[in-house]
Known about the structure:
two-stranded antiparallel ribbon; 341 residues
Amino acid sequence: MVCVPKLTPADAVAAVRNPLAFIADRWTPDPRTVRRAALAALVMSVVIVVTGGAVRLTGSGLGCPTWPECTAGSLTPTEALSYHSAIEFTNRMLTYVLCAAVGWAIIAARSEKPYRRSLTRLGWAQFWLVMSNAILGGIVVLVGLNPYTVAAHFLLATALITVAAVMWQRTGEGDGEPRLLVGKAVQQLVWALVAVTLLLITAGTVVTGAGPHPGDSGDVERIKVSWSGVAELHAVFAWIVVSLTFALWFFLKGIDAPQGPRDRVRDLFLILLGQGVIGYIQYFTHLPTILVGLHMFGSCLVWIGVLRVLLSLRERAGVDTTADLPAQSYDAVSASIAGPR
């Protein structure tokens, strides 16, 4: 039987004034709990993108024609509305699940001992990104699925995935000064990979904005560019990303770099292969809904994979045993290329 201390009036006041500090004073989570909480927030940030894609691909973007209500005078779909309303409303409700996951990550990070301000800040950054994107999502509905606002909605979701992935990585590291595991040449190559991947994702939003899935069966504005031309540009960026990843893997192997960065690059290459296969199949089969949804999911995995490659280039003192990237010693053929020993 676990004894639960009595809640005094002073405790109640403290809990109201600063609930996070109140919880942190009475609970110390296991490091694995903090890491799992951060992972839950990352998973939900991907889920919300996939379900948002489902809204678009089923033509349910205006299933709830207003915001924050679903329809005038009702927060929930009415019987008069179609299944599109249920799909759109479900996606809206999943935002609350995402908020719960982010809140759990914030609470776990705030309660960890010793207190790590960097983790808490990353958690709060996710919260404000979720709130901003919820407002932007409302604007998307109110302006009738304007493709530029839809693109911004996806890019802001990508920013959320970025912060969530960084927080998940940081839960498995210490707070010491980062020590680079590779040299400047490798760092520049990876940053080029990050930049081209961002161009790839941005081009993908333009393809969506100009393509045959406007998000609603009604008359929805489209981006007035050649869809096939933008799709080909998107494919060019994809091939550049694949080429950079392939070159990076051989480069790291050639200089006998640590296993961590090599594993992350290998993982990214495998994700890119799967994403490329899906991309070409959907292009030549005229964008079937299920493949476009898988491609959106793959886009999230590609970006997370690129971020993991970037974050694997350094280590921090005090790495926890639950970390994915343990420090490793290695012999380099050139200190200027491979980085500090």
